[in-house]
Amino acid sequence: MIEVKSVTKKFGSFTAVDNISFTVENSSIYGLIGYNGAGKTTLLKTASGMYRPDGGKVLLDGENAYDNNEIRTGLFYIPDDMYFMGNSTVEGMARFYSGMYESFDMKLFEKILSIFSLDKKARLRSFSKGMKRQAEIAFALASRPRFMLLDEVFDGLDPQKKEICKTLFLEYMAESECSVIISSHSLSELANLCDHVGLINGKKMSLDCSIDDIPEENKKFRLLLSQPVSKGAFEALPLKELEVKGNAVFFTVMGKENLEKVRKAVALMPIASMDELPMTLEEVFLSEMEDKSYDLQQIFG
Amino acid sequence: MIYSKSSADYAARYDLKRCFKSGFLFPLLACGLFLLSLFSTIDKNLHGDEYVYKIFGSDTYETYIIYQYICAAFGALAGLFSFRFLTSVKMSNVYLSMGINRKQLVKNRIISSTVYIALASIIPFIAAIILNSIYFTVEPGLIKASVFYALVYFGNMLLGFAVASLFTVSVGNFIESGVCTATALLAPTALIYTAGVAISKFVNGAAMSDYEMFYDFGGFCRTFASYTRRLNPLEYLNSTPPVGYKYVDGGARELGGFDYLTVIAWLLIAVVVLCLVPKLIEKRKAEIAGAVGANKKAVRFVCGVIAAVSFMLLSKFASVNKTVGCIITTIVPAMIYIGITAIVYRNKADFVASLKDAAVVTAVTFVTTVTLVTGIFGYFSKVPDPEEIEYAGICPSSVEFIMALDESRRITRESSKVYGPMTDKDDINTVVSIHHKVVDGLDKGDDSVCFVYKMKNGRYIARFYKNVSLEGAQASHNVVNTKWYDGLIKDSFTDWDFDYDKEWEKIPEVTPGTTQIEETEIGWKCDYIYYKEKNNTGEIYVYSKTLNDSVKLSEKVSPEEMKEFRTVFSEELIALTPDEIFYPKEQAMYHIRVRKGDAEEYDGPTMDNIPVYKSMKKTVEFLTRHGVEFNNLTADDVAEVKLVAQENKTVTIGLRREKSVAVSYLTAEYVKDVFGGRENIQGDSGFAFSDVEGITDRKLIERYFNSYRSYCSYSGDNGKFVQFIFKDGSDLVAYIPEKEL
Known about the structure:
CATH architecture of the largest domain in chain A: 3-Layer(aba) Sandwich
Number of domains of chain B: 5
Number of helices of chain B: 25
Strand content of chain A: 25-35%
CATH superfamily of the largest domain in chain A: P-loop containing nucleotide triphosphate hydrolases
Strand order of the largest sheet of chain A: 6-7-8-3-9-10
Number of strands of chain B: 18
Distance between the termini of chain A: 51 Å
Radius of gyration of chain A: 23 Å
Oligomer: heterodimer
Order of helices and strands of chain A: EEEHEEHEHHHEHEHEEHEHEEHEHH
Helix content of chain B: 40-55%
Number of helices of chain A: 12
Largest sheet of chain A: 6 strands, mixed
Structural class of chain A: alpha/beta
Shape of chain A: elongated
CATH topology of the largest domain in chain A: Rossmann fold
C-alpha cells in the first residue's frame, strides 16, 4: 500500500505540490492526472523516496520512503526521462537491474521482450522512444516490484503496444498485489486501467476517487423550469459551468456531498423536467481544468 | 516481489562490484603515466650510483610538482565521474530510486576509487624498485624514496578525488562541480602566487622576492610561494633542494630530509574531506541535479577565490600608481564577484543577495590593501637598531663597479647582489644610515636597494625596497666608504691566495667544495657559481682607454714590481670617493683588467675594465715608468656615432669594446633592461643602437669622442649611451653625461 499523506514539496519559494493526500491499496492502479507542470512528476519522485518532502510523508507499506533502501528494493520507478547506461544493450541493462533487484526474473524478462518483439542483443540507444519504453516496462515488470511508479509510461507507445502494456500491468497487479501509480496528462491512456484516479490541479489534489464512483458522483444537470428563475438563485449552490437560457438551466455538479446539496435545492424549484446525466472521466477532467483553461478565442482578438 | 535488508545488501554488493568494474580508468591513466615515465629512464638515466634518484624520467623538482598536479587532476576526474550520476537528472532518477541508499552509493565509490588510487600510486614505485634492482641492487634508499613518493602521490590523488567528490555531491551541475573542484585544487597555488605578486607590488621592503635568491652570507631569500609551500597540497615538494634530497659534504648527494609531516598532514586532510562526503550526500536535495548555482556556498567559494586572485593580480597597477592601484584592487574584485554571481544565478533575488557578499568583498579588499600598502602598518619600513645587529649586508643601487671587482665574492641571481657581511661597527652604522635614507625616500623614484641583517638574537632581517628616491639610491653608493669595501679592494689586489671556503661555511644549504652545480644534475634551479680552486695565480692586463690595445703586465714587470703595482693601484682605488667612482669627471687614461686562475680562461674570476684616471698619480706613474703606452684610437678613427637616450633610468654601464658580436652578457642585458626589454637575440651589445641613425658629422664625432665616460653610474642624469663605430669595424659602447651633450 502506498500512502501519500499531506505531501508538500517546494523548490525554493516555488510550491510544486501542495498538501496532497491519497492512498493506493494493494492490487490497485492509481491514475494521477493533471496538465503539464501540475506536479505529477514531483509527486512521483517524492513517492519514490528521491525527493524529501517539505511537509507530510509518503509511506510504502507503512515505511517512510525517503532514502529507505530496504523498502525501495521493492520499488520500481519508470521516469518520464529514461536513462540507459552508455552503450548498453537490452541484455546489459537487464543484468544491471538483476544486480540491483534480487527478485529480478530473467525468464520473465525474456518472455516480455518476446511479447514486445525486442532483440535483447540490441543497443538501447538505437531504439526509438516507444521501444525504449517497452524495454523499460520489461525491466520494471521483470524486477517484480512491490510498488511501481510510472511517469507518462505510455508516451511514445503505439495504440497496440499501449494495450499490451495495460494488459501486462493488470495481469502483474492481479498476480502480485502490487500498488501502482501511473501518471498521465491523457485520460484516454488511463481508461480501462486504473481503479482510482486523482486529479492534480493548481498543485493540489482536486479529485480523488474510484473510477466506478465517477459517474455516480459527478453529474450533468439539464433543468426545464415551469417559470423563469434568475441566475442568482443558483449562484449559492456548488455548481460548475452554470448556463441559464430562459426557462432552461444547464450545470454540472461534482462530488457526492455537492450532489446531495444540489438535489435538495433543485427539488424546491418549479421544475417542468429534469435530466441528471453521469459524467465521463474526460468531462470531469475538463470541468476541473476549467478554471485554468484559456479562452483561445480571445487570443487573436 | 520482496523487499528486505538482504535485498538491500544484495543491491549494495552489486553496486560495489560495478564501481570496481567501472572506476579504474583515471587511476589507471595516472599509473600508466608513472610507468611510462619510469621506463623512459631505462636508456638514459639509470647509470652509476644515481639509480636511487631515477624514479622518474627527470629529477628536476618541477617534475615532482608536475606529478603532484597530474595526480590531483586524475584523482579529481575519478571523483567527478564516480559521482556524475548525482548531477544528471536521468541518472539520479535511476540510482536514487533503487534499493540502495545514498550513503551506500557514496561509500561504494569511495572504497573502489581509494583502492584503485592506492594501486595506481604503489605499482609504479614497486616497478621502480624492480627495475633498479635489475640494473643495480635494491638499496634501502631506493625503497625509502619509493615509499615516500608513493605516499605523496597517493595523497595528491586522494585529495583530488576527495575534493571532486565533495563538490559533486554538493552542487547540481557536472560542469559546475568541475569548476568548483578545479578552483579548490588550484586555489592554494593561485592565492599563494598572486599573494606573492601583491606583496612584491604593494609592500615596499617585503622580505620576499619574486624569485629564489641567496644572501651570500645569510641563506635564502625565498619567494612567498617557497615560504608557504607546505600550505599548498600540490606544491609542497617545491623546495630547494627538493624534498627527499640532501646535500652532504664533498658534493655527493644522498636521499634524506623526507618531509613526511607535510605529506601525512595533507593525506589526513584528504581523508577528512572524504569523510565529509557521506555526510553531505544525506543533506543533498535530489532535485538540484543538473541545476547551476544550486549550492550558494559553492558559488560563494568560487567567486571568492576568483575575486581574491583578481585582487592580487590587479595589484600590478600599484607599480604604475599606488593610489590608482589601491582603488582598483578595492573595487574591481567586488565587481567581478557581482558579475559572476549575476551570470550564475540569473535572477533578481539572488543577485540582490550577492550585493551583500560584494560589500564584504570590498571591505576585505580594502582592509587588505591598506595593510599591504602601509607595509603591514610600517613594519617593513622599520630600520633595525645598529646595537642589535651582528653583521649587515647591502645590495646598493647600480654598483656594478664593485661587482666587477671581484665576481668570486658574489652569489647572484639576476640583478640582486648582497655585499657583506660587514661586521665592523662603523660599517654597520653606514649601512643603517643608508637604510634610513632609503626608507625616507620610498615611492619617490624608481631605484631599488636591499638590506640584509643578521641580528644578535640569531634572526635574519631582509628588506627589499623598490621605488627608492634618487637620494636614497645615491646614498647607497656610500657603501664604498666602508672598511668592508676597502678590505675587498685590498684583498682583491694584494692577496691572491683567497680562502674562499671560509666565506661559504655560513650557508647551510650550499655544499662547500663543489665546482659548479648544474641544474639538470641536481634538479635545483640555481645560478650561482662556486669556485673550489684557490687562485694563487693571476694576471693583470692594461688596456688603452679605447680598449683597442692591451699589455700583459707580467711581461713588462717583475713579480716584485707586480706586487708593488697591485698595492699602489688598490690604495688609489680605495681612495676614490663615491662621486669619483660613480660620476667620473674625466676620461680614463687606461683600463685595468684582472684575471685570476687561468688567465686565458674567460670564465675565470675577472675584474673588468677598471678605469685609471689622471688623478691616480702613482698608478699612472708606475705604468709610464714601465713603458706601458698605447696607440689609442682617436676621433679620426671613428666612422660614425650613434646615440641613444637612457630615458631617465638609473643605469650603470661599463665600457665595452668588441670586434663583432659581443660576448658580454652583462652589458647586453643591462642595455636591454634600460631600453625597455628589447630582445637581445644574438647577445650583441650594440643591438640597442641598431635602429639608430649614425652621426657622421666630424665635429660632433670629435666632441662626443672627447667627452665619453668609460664607466659611469648616472642616477637621474639625462645623458646618452654612445656607440662609436670605428673604421676597422669594431665598436665601443660608453656613456656621455648630460652636460657633455
